[in-house]
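Milestone M4 deliverable, item 7.
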Amino acid sequence: MTEPTAAATHTSYDDLTALFINCTLKKSPEPSHTQGLVDISRHIMQAHGVHVDVVRAIDHDIATGVWPDMTEHGWDTDEWPAIFEKVKAADILVLAGPIWLGDNSSIMKQVHERLYGGSHLLNDRGQYLYYGRVGGCLITGNEDGVKHCAQNVLYTLQHIGYTIPPQADAGWIGEAGPGPSYLDPGSGGPENDFTNRNTTFMTWNLMHLARLLKDVGGVPAHGNQRAEWDAGCRFDFENPEYR
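Output delivered:
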C-alpha cells in the first residue's frame, strides 16, 4: 500500500513550531518512559519540517505559583519565564506525563498552574494569549487513569485558550500493578498498535489544525476580545434583566 504523504496534499508544515513539556518525575539523565512516547510524536513532526523543542520540566528550577515570574512574588529563583518564551513561540503544545495514584504527576499540575499564570495576557489582537494555538497530551503509566489524566490536561488547555483538535490524546499503560513500564524490555509498549495509531493520529491532527489556524490568522477576533470588552464593547450581548 502506498504511504500518503504531506507532499501529496501540497501541505507544508515547516513554518510551524511545537513544544513538548515532559512532566516526568525523573531528572535527566535518568531514562523517562514518557519521553519514549514523546519521541514518536516528535519524530513525525520533525520529518515534516516542524521545529520541535522538548523541555523536561523537572530539570528546571520552576517556582510554585500562578504568575508569569514568581521572583516578583517572593521566590529567589524561577526558571519558568525562559520556558514560557518557548510556550509563546509554539504553535503546538503537547503536555506529556506519567500517572501516579490515578492522576497526573505533581509536575504536570505545576505546569498547568504556570500556564494558567500567563492566561490573562493578551495577544496583539486583544484576545487571550493562547488563542490560535493547538494543544494535546501524552500519558504513560502502570495503572488505570489514561483517560482521566488526558481529560484533565485537555480541559486545562482549552480553558486557557488552546484549540483542541479531534483525538488530541494518546497513552499507554501496562498491566495494573507492579510490572514493566513503557520502555522496559518485554513491556509491549513500543509495539502496541493502539498506542502507535493514536499517537500518530494525534500528531497529524495537531499539525493539521495548527496549519489551518496559522493560515487564517488564528481564531477570528470578534466576540472574544478581552481588550474590547473592557473598553465597553458587548458583541451583541443583551442582559435579559434590562429588557
